[in-house]
Target: Iron-sulfur cluster carrier protein
Amino acid sequence: MEALETVTYAGTKKNVVESGMVADTPAVAAPQKDGEPWKVTVVLEFPRDTDPFLKSTVKAAEAAIKYYCARNEEGGTSNDVEVEIKTEFKSAPRPEVGQMLPGVKNIIAVSSGKGGVGKSTVSANLAIALARLGYKVGLLDTDIFGPSMPKMFDVEDERPYAVKKDGRDLIVPIEKYGVKLLSIGFFVSPTTATLWRGGMATSALKQLIADADWGELDYFILDTPPGTSDIHLTLLQTLPITGAVIVSTPQQVALADARKGIDMYRNDKVNVPILGLIENMAWFTPAELPENKYYIFGKEGCKQLAEEMQVPLLAQIPLVQSICDNGDAGTPAALSSETATGLAFINLAQSVVTVVNRRNKEKPATKIVGMNK
Ligand SMILES: Nc1ncnc2c1ncn2[C@@H]1O[C@H](COP(=O)(O)OP(=O)(O)OP(=O)(O)O)[C@@H](O)[C@H]1O
Ligand SMILES: [Mg+2]
Model:
């Protein structure tokens, strides 16, 4: 126990004894024959099997006991003692891939090739519009390095709490505008997250999916980062995505990237159906001249791409100052059915419901991408 008092558990920043992790009094067995080592068995209890400090704590405990024994015996060496550290967990294990969200009916990834074309704006408004149509909706901000949802929902200061369910501690999503919401933005400052390695981002994302109490959902919307990244791969390896909607502006460079996004989902190892395209910033309409349309990023580029790729064009959303202002103010346009932009998002939600129903009738459920492919 004295040796274990020198081992810090990074989860509490206290030693493992103080942290209450030493499950039983360590067992110490003397050697049966000369030359054999002493045997020390310790049981350490961690909060859960996915504890990020598990391996390092076990190694440190082993080293500390060996060092302690060698130091306290004259002429002793660390080989005089054999240490076995057993691990136990307070929390039941996380469900296997494929069984993570049993109450979720449809999972929709909102994607684009290019950054800044309006994925997060579309995700927030689509989620709110679906909730206003009476569906149970969850929204996960998977943009670990640039989360936008806390601001768009005006819940930047909220901190989700945890509940105990079936022996596991689960994060409770924040509920606003009828939507259950989680984002890494609730847990870390953006400057910290940008320093993360890929593995840390992946593990945080998995926690937001599998260690959260999403419950029953008709639609689970995933706002994804730009491009085709590690995050996308993790999503494809973790969840059976019902379909993807691709957001693009009508501009040629955005369309070229949208094509790459479509190709990723259509790859024969991925096979996630494309539910349709959304043309965002389709034209600019000044508030004082509502009849005027200015095609500043080009005209109907997404319509042409949709025809070429044989996917539906689900909506054309104009570039309107209020969409940007509403996003920044945390009151997305879809909250109102009285404005043209609010209606555009409600119509989009209705189109999404139609294409998802058709997809579910015509195609088998998506298979999760295997780890080695
Ligand atoms: N139709 C629109 N009219 C006006 N402003 C818009 C519209 N769509 C998006 N915006 C604004 O454009 C900016 C980028 O949008 P958004 O953050 O939704 O894009 P994104 O594709 O999620 O970006 P990223 O790739 O960085 O995640 C935001 O400031 C948003 O408010
Ligand atoms: Mg975004």
About this structure: The CA atoms of residues 108 and 355 lie 11 Å apart. The first helix runs from residue 54 to 72. The chain has two domains: 4-89, 104-362. The domain at 4-89 is CATH 3.30.300 (GMP Synthetase; Chain A, domain 3).
